[in-house]
From TrEMBL:
Broad class of enzyme this protein falls into: hydrolase
Gene Ontology MF: a single term: hydrolase activity
Protein name, per record: mRNA interferase HigB
EC number: 3.1.-.-
UniProt KW keywords: Hydrolase
Native source organism of the sequence: Rosistilla oblonga
Pfam families: HigB_toxin
Keyword Hydrolase: yes
Signal peptide span: none
Gene: higB
InterPro entries: Toxin_HigB
Length: 97
């Protein structure tokens, strides 16, 4: 998958170093993946929440951080729409970010 934008992840793990290792692992796994449907994502990340319109919420460091991605399966592209603490995630609408 092509991931847009890694810079968002780097900025986040610079602020929250505890998340760095898991975000790097998520990035490497997503980069190597060829997801064609939400079922493919769910097979790899059973705790991911599948939302409407290609949105997926990934739990990072257990459930301490949340990553919202918009996946365009037909283009093999993952757009990072939000990364934040669980408390920050609770304040957003994952369908609209």
């Amino acid at each position: 998958m092509r991931i847009i934008a890694r810079k968002t992840l780097v900025e986040f793990w610079t602020k929250y170093p505890r998340a760095e290792e898991q975000l790097k692992a998520w990035y490497a796994e997503a980069d190597a993946a060829s997801w064609t449907s939400p079922a493919d994502v769910k097979a790899k990340y059973g705790n991911a929440s599948i939302l409407k319109d290609g949105r997926v919420v990934f739990n990072i460091c257990g459930n301490e951080y949340r990553l919202v991605a918009w996946i365009k399966y037909e283009y093999y592209t993952v757009y990072i729409r939000f990364i934040g603490t669980h408390a920050e995630y609770d304040k957003i609408d994952a369908q609209k970010v």
